[in-house]
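Task: complex structure prediction.
Instruction: return C-alpha coordinates for all chains below.
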Amino acid sequence: MMQDQELEALLKQAPKQQPSAALYGSLLEQMTGPRPFGWRDFMHALWPFGPAWQPAGAFVALAVMGFVLSPSLNPTNTADEFELANADFSRLVLGSETYLDEGTM
Amino acid sequence: MSDAHKADAELMKQVAAGNPQACRALLEAHLAPAYRLAFGIVGRADRAEDIAQEAMLRLWKAAPRWQAKAKLSTWLYRVTHNLAIDEKRKLERESGTEMPEMADPAPGVIAAHAAAQDASALEQAIALLPERQGIAIRLIYFEELAQAEAAEIMSITPVALDSLVARARRGLKAHLEGMR
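Output:
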Protein backbone atom coordinates (compact mmCIF):
# COMPACT_ATOMS: atom_id res chain seq x y z
CA MET A 1 0.00 0.00 0.00
CA MET A 2 1.21 3.48 -0.82
CA GLN A 3 2.67 5.38 2.13
CA ASP A 4 1.59 8.84 3.30
CA GLN A 5 5.03 10.32 2.61
CA GLU A 6 5.01 8.94 -0.92
CA LEU A 7 1.65 10.54 -1.64
CA GLU A 8 2.78 13.78 -0.05
CA ALA A 9 5.85 13.89 -2.30
CA LEU A 10 3.76 13.09 -5.36
CA LEU A 11 1.32 15.90 -4.56
CA LYS A 12 4.12 18.38 -4.02
CA GLN A 13 5.85 17.47 -7.28
CA ALA A 14 2.68 17.66 -9.35
CA PRO A 15 3.19 19.74 -12.51
CA LYS A 16 1.40 23.07 -12.47
CA GLN A 17 -0.53 23.90 -15.62
CA GLN A 18 -0.20 27.41 -16.96
CA PRO A 19 -2.69 29.44 -18.96
CA SER A 20 -1.71 30.44 -22.48
CA ALA A 21 0.28 33.59 -23.20
CA ALA A 22 -2.60 34.67 -25.45
CA LEU A 23 -4.97 34.75 -22.48
CA TYR A 24 -2.48 36.77 -20.45
CA GLY A 25 -2.02 39.25 -23.32
CA SER A 26 -5.73 39.61 -23.98
CA LEU A 27 -6.48 40.24 -20.30
CA LEU A 28 -3.66 42.76 -19.95
CA GLU A 29 -4.96 44.65 -22.98
CA GLN A 30 -8.48 44.79 -21.56
CA MET A 31 -7.33 45.78 -18.09
CA THR A 32 -5.19 48.66 -19.29
CA GLY A 33 -7.88 49.88 -21.70
CA PRO A 34 -10.94 52.03 -20.98
CA ARG A 35 -12.98 50.84 -18.03
CA PRO A 36 -16.74 50.31 -18.55
CA PHE A 37 -19.00 52.28 -16.21
CA GLY A 38 -21.77 49.99 -14.97
CA TRP A 39 -24.60 50.42 -12.51
CA ARG A 40 -22.42 49.14 -9.66
CA ASP A 41 -19.90 51.88 -10.37
CA PHE A 42 -22.77 54.37 -10.44
CA MET A 43 -23.98 53.16 -7.04
CA HIS A 44 -20.45 53.33 -5.72
CA ALA A 45 -20.14 56.92 -6.95
CA LEU A 46 -23.33 57.75 -5.03
CA TRP A 47 -22.32 55.89 -1.86
CA PRO A 48 -18.57 55.23 -1.74
CA PHE A 49 -18.50 54.22 1.94
CA GLY A 50 -19.55 50.58 1.55
CA PRO A 51 -22.21 48.41 -0.06
CA ALA A 52 -25.10 50.42 -1.53
CA TRP A 53 -27.67 48.26 0.26
CA GLN A 54 -26.78 50.02 3.53
CA PRO A 55 -28.21 53.47 2.67
CA ALA A 56 -30.96 51.82 0.60
CA GLY A 57 -31.91 49.66 3.60
CA ALA A 58 -31.91 52.66 5.91
CA PHE A 59 -34.14 54.56 3.48
CA VAL A 60 -36.58 51.66 3.23
CA ALA A 61 -36.63 51.27 7.04
CA LEU A 62 -37.41 54.99 7.44
CA ALA A 63 -40.14 54.79 4.81
CA VAL A 64 -41.72 51.80 6.59
CA MET A 65 -41.50 53.58 9.97
CA GLY A 66 -43.14 56.67 8.45
CA PHE A 67 -45.88 54.58 6.93
CA VAL A 68 -46.54 52.71 10.18
CA LEU A 69 -46.32 55.68 12.55
CA SER A 70 -47.98 58.41 10.46
CA PRO A 71 -51.64 57.43 11.24
CA SER A 72 -50.99 57.78 14.97
CA LEU A 73 -49.72 61.36 14.51
CA ASN A 74 -53.00 62.39 12.80
CA PRO A 75 -51.97 65.77 11.37
CA THR A 76 -55.61 66.83 10.52
CA ASN A 77 -56.52 66.74 14.22
CA THR A 78 -53.49 68.83 14.99
CA ALA A 79 -54.77 71.59 12.67
CA ASP A 80 -58.21 71.46 14.25
CA GLU A 81 -56.74 71.67 17.73
CA PHE A 82 -54.69 74.66 16.70
CA GLU A 83 -57.79 76.47 15.45
CA LEU A 84 -59.71 75.68 18.64
CA ALA A 85 -56.84 76.91 20.78
CA ASN A 86 -56.63 80.05 18.67
CA ALA A 87 -60.38 80.67 19.14
CA ASP A 88 -60.12 80.10 22.93
CA PHE A 89 -57.25 82.54 23.13
CA SER A 90 -59.15 85.18 21.16
CA ARG A 91 -62.19 84.78 23.37
CA LEU A 92 -60.19 85.08 26.56
CA VAL A 93 -57.93 87.96 25.55
CA LEU A 94 -60.07 89.98 23.17
CA GLY A 95 -63.42 89.02 24.51
CA SER A 96 -64.77 88.21 21.09
CA GLU A 97 -65.07 85.40 18.61
CA THR A 98 -62.64 87.14 16.26
CA TYR A 99 -59.67 85.10 15.29
CA LEU A 100 -56.25 86.69 15.64
CA ASP A 101 -55.30 86.14 12.03
CA GLU A 102 -58.54 87.65 10.61
CA GLY A 103 -57.90 91.08 12.13
CA THR A 104 -60.40 93.53 13.62
CA MET A 105 -59.64 96.70 11.68
CA MET B 1 -6.87 44.56 8.97
CA SER B 2 -3.88 42.39 8.01
CA ASP B 3 -0.91 43.48 5.92
CA ALA B 4 -2.04 41.15 3.13
CA HIS B 5 -5.43 42.87 3.01
CA LYS B 6 -3.75 46.28 2.90
CA ALA B 7 -1.41 45.16 0.11
CA ASP B 8 -4.37 43.75 -1.83
CA ALA B 9 -6.30 47.00 -1.38
CA GLU B 10 -3.32 49.06 -2.56
CA LEU B 11 -2.86 46.81 -5.60
CA MET B 12 -6.56 47.05 -6.45
CA LYS B 13 -6.41 50.84 -6.12
CA GLN B 14 -3.62 50.90 -8.69
CA VAL B 15 -5.49 48.46 -10.94
CA ALA B 16 -8.60 50.66 -10.73
CA ALA B 17 -6.46 53.61 -11.83
CA GLY B 18 -5.37 51.59 -14.89
CA ASN B 19 -1.71 51.29 -13.85
CA PRO B 20 -0.17 48.74 -16.29
CA GLN B 21 2.43 47.58 -13.75
CA ALA B 22 -0.30 46.81 -11.22
CA CYS B 23 -2.38 44.99 -13.84
CA ARG B 24 0.66 42.89 -14.75
CA ALA B 25 1.32 42.14 -11.06
CA LEU B 26 -2.31 41.12 -10.57
CA LEU B 27 -2.25 38.79 -13.57
CA GLU B 28 1.11 37.27 -12.69
CA ALA B 29 0.03 36.52 -9.14
CA HIS B 30 -3.51 35.31 -9.73
CA LEU B 31 -4.22 34.24 -13.32
CA ALA B 32 -2.40 30.90 -13.19
CA PRO B 33 -3.92 29.74 -9.87
CA ALA B 34 -7.40 30.66 -11.09
CA TYR B 35 -6.78 28.81 -14.35
CA ARG B 36 -5.47 25.71 -12.54
CA LEU B 37 -8.47 25.58 -10.23
CA ALA B 38 -10.86 25.95 -13.17
CA PHE B 39 -8.95 23.34 -15.17
CA GLY B 40 -9.03 20.96 -12.22
CA ILE B 41 -12.80 21.23 -12.03
CA VAL B 42 -13.87 21.28 -15.70
CA GLY B 43 -10.95 19.24 -17.08
CA ARG B 44 -10.78 21.21 -20.33
CA ALA B 45 -8.15 23.81 -21.12
CA ASP B 46 -10.36 25.94 -23.39
CA ARG B 47 -13.17 26.17 -20.84
CA ALA B 48 -10.70 26.72 -18.02
CA GLU B 49 -9.26 29.71 -19.90
CA ASP B 50 -12.74 31.16 -20.41
CA ILE B 51 -13.50 30.77 -16.71
CA ALA B 52 -10.17 32.26 -15.60
CA GLN B 53 -10.72 35.18 -17.97
CA GLU B 54 -14.22 35.82 -16.67
CA ALA B 55 -13.05 35.65 -13.04
CA MET B 56 -10.13 38.03 -13.67
CA LEU B 57 -12.39 40.50 -15.48
CA ARG B 58 -14.86 40.43 -12.61
CA LEU B 59 -11.99 41.17 -10.25
CA TRP B 60 -10.83 44.03 -12.45
CA LYS B 61 -14.36 45.47 -12.63
CA ALA B 62 -14.63 45.27 -8.84
CA ALA B 63 -11.32 47.11 -8.37
CA PRO B 64 -12.74 50.65 -7.91
CA ARG B 65 -15.13 49.38 -5.24
CA TRP B 66 -12.64 47.05 -3.54
CA GLN B 67 -12.89 47.00 0.25
CA ALA B 68 -9.81 46.12 2.28
CA LYS B 69 -11.96 43.69 4.30
CA ALA B 70 -11.69 40.93 1.70
CA LYS B 71 -8.64 38.87 0.79
CA LEU B 72 -8.12 39.10 -2.95
CA SER B 73 -7.07 35.49 -3.52
CA THR B 74 -10.03 34.13 -1.53
CA TRP B 75 -12.44 36.32 -3.49
CA LEU B 76 -10.96 35.26 -6.82
CA TYR B 77 -10.79 31.55 -5.97
CA ARG B 78 -14.37 31.64 -4.79
CA VAL B 79 -15.62 33.27 -7.99
CA THR B 80 -13.53 30.85 -10.08
CA HIS B 81 -14.79 27.87 -8.09
CA ASN B 82 -18.42 28.88 -8.58
CA LEU B 83 -17.99 29.65 -12.29
CA ALA B 84 -16.20 26.34 -12.84
CA ILE B 85 -18.87 24.33 -11.03
CA ASP B 86 -21.56 26.03 -13.14
CA GLU B 87 -19.59 25.32 -16.31
CA LYS B 88 -19.08 21.69 -15.33
CA ARG B 89 -22.82 21.26 -14.76
CA LYS B 90 -23.46 22.88 -18.15
CA LEU B 91 -21.01 20.53 -19.86
CA GLU B 92 -22.66 17.56 -18.18
CA ARG B 93 -26.09 18.70 -19.38
CA GLU B 94 -24.77 19.23 -22.92
CA SER B 95 -23.10 15.82 -23.13
CA GLY B 96 -25.92 14.09 -21.29
CA THR B 97 -23.42 12.31 -19.07
CA GLU B 98 -21.85 13.11 -15.79
CA MET B 99 -18.18 14.04 -15.95
CA PRO B 100 -15.96 11.61 -14.02
CA GLU B 101 -16.10 12.38 -10.36
CA MET B 102 -17.47 9.14 -8.96
CA ALA B 103 -15.43 6.69 -6.99
CA ASP B 104 -15.65 4.06 -9.70
CA PRO B 105 -16.47 5.45 -13.15
CA ALA B 106 -16.53 3.42 -16.33
CA PRO B 107 -13.06 2.62 -17.79
CA GLY B 108 -13.93 4.32 -21.11
CA VAL B 109 -14.71 7.57 -19.37
CA ILE B 110 -11.45 7.38 -17.46
CA ALA B 111 -9.48 6.79 -20.64
CA ALA B 112 -11.20 9.61 -22.53
CA HIS B 113 -10.79 12.00 -19.66
CA ALA B 114 -7.16 11.10 -19.17
CA ALA B 115 -6.38 11.36 -22.85
CA ALA B 116 -8.11 14.72 -23.14
CA GLN B 117 -6.09 16.13 -20.31
CA ASP B 118 -2.89 14.30 -21.14
CA ALA B 119 -2.47 14.21 -17.42
CA SER B 120 -0.21 12.34 -15.07
CA ALA B 121 -1.33 9.36 -13.01
CA LEU B 122 -1.92 11.74 -10.16
CA GLU B 123 -4.21 13.90 -12.30
CA GLN B 124 -6.10 10.79 -13.35
CA ALA B 125 -6.43 9.69 -9.75
CA ILE B 126 -7.69 13.13 -8.72
CA ALA B 127 -10.19 13.04 -11.56
CA LEU B 128 -11.56 9.81 -10.08
CA LEU B 129 -12.23 11.44 -6.72
CA PRO B 130 -15.61 12.93 -5.89
CA GLU B 131 -15.71 16.54 -7.08
CA ARG B 132 -15.36 18.27 -3.72
CA GLN B 133 -12.52 16.00 -2.63
CA GLY B 134 -10.64 16.83 -5.83
CA ILE B 135 -11.15 20.56 -5.29
CA ALA B 136 -9.97 20.29 -1.67
CA ILE B 137 -6.79 18.49 -2.77
CA ARG B 138 -6.09 21.11 -5.43
CA LEU B 139 -6.58 24.03 -3.06
CA ILE B 140 -4.53 22.56 -0.23
CA TYR B 141 -1.69 20.85 -2.11
CA PHE B 142 -1.46 22.53 -5.50
CA GLU B 143 -2.29 26.09 -4.51
CA GLU B 144 -0.88 25.66 -1.00
CA LEU B 145 -3.71 27.56 0.65
CA ALA B 146 -4.29 27.63 4.38
CA GLN B 147 -7.10 25.34 5.53
CA ALA B 148 -9.22 28.29 6.67
CA GLU B 149 -8.97 29.98 3.28
CA ALA B 150 -9.69 26.77 1.34
CA ALA B 151 -12.68 26.10 3.59
CA GLU B 152 -13.99 29.64 2.99
CA ILE B 153 -13.66 29.22 -0.78
CA MET B 154 -15.60 25.96 -0.65
CA SER B 155 -18.16 27.39 1.80
CA ILE B 156 -17.53 24.68 4.38
CA THR B 157 -16.04 24.62 7.87
CA PRO B 158 -12.32 23.86 8.40
CA VAL B 159 -13.34 20.67 10.21
CA ALA B 160 -15.39 19.53 7.21
CA LEU B 161 -12.46 20.37 4.96
CA ASP B 162 -10.14 18.28 7.13
CA SER B 163 -12.42 15.32 6.78
CA LEU B 164 -12.75 15.90 3.02
CA VAL B 165 -8.95 16.00 2.60
CA ALA B 166 -8.49 12.86 4.71
CA ARG B 167 -11.00 10.97 2.56
CA ALA B 168 -9.42 12.37 -0.59
CA ARG B 169 -5.99 11.16 0.49
CA ARG B 170 -7.34 7.68 1.18
CA GLY B 171 -9.07 7.66 -2.21
CA LEU B 172 -5.95 8.89 -4.00
CA LYS B 173 -3.79 6.23 -2.42
CA ALA B 174 -6.23 3.53 -3.45
CA HIS B 175 -6.53 4.80 -7.03
CA LEU B 176 -2.77 5.25 -7.46
CA GLU B 177 -2.19 1.79 -6.03
CA GLY B 178 -4.70 0.40 -8.52
CA MET B 179 -2.89 2.08 -11.42
CA ARG B 180 0.44 0.41 -10.61
